[in-house]
Amino acid sequence: QVQLVESGGGLVQAGDSLRLSCAASGRTFSAYPMGWFRQAPGQERELVARITWNGAHTYYADFVKGRFTISRDNAKNTVYLQMNSLKPEDTAVYFCARDAGVNQYDTWGQGTQVTVSS
Asked: Distance (Å, rounded) from C-alpha 110 to C-alpha 98?
């Protein structure tokens, strides 16, 4: 059974950067696309970025384009989210998830809190 563990969240000021990591257990990590989501208090969970199994293709939500970068290292079973030029509205719990097929995310991490102060 695959488990996902996020890390790298924290409290930063507007304009700062953070890099989130999502470490996966199991030998099948490299076979699946992965996504980063976020959920702010009182709001729906939303997709932030997605990466294909080999990293060849990525998708970004409009609200992070040009600021966030998703990447992965299949040798380390890890997916990353580099977040630059952070804004207070980026404050949320960030989750990584495995895409089991056609945007069907079946495995989730516990989340890591990102708080951006103005």
From this structure: 13
- What are the tens digits of pLDDT across the range 41-72? 999 999 999 999 999 999 999 999 999 999 99
Locate the DSSP E strands across the chain. Answer: 4-7, 10-13, 18-24, 34-39, 46-51, 58-60, 68-73, 78-83, 92-99, 105-108, 112-117
Structure tokens given for 44: 């729906």
CB 53 within 8 A of CB 31: yes
Find out whether 112 and 92 touch, Cβ atoms under 8 Å. no
- Decide: helix, strand or coil at residue 31: helix
By the 8 A CB rule, do 48 and 81 touch?
yes
List of the chain residues with pLDDT < 50: none
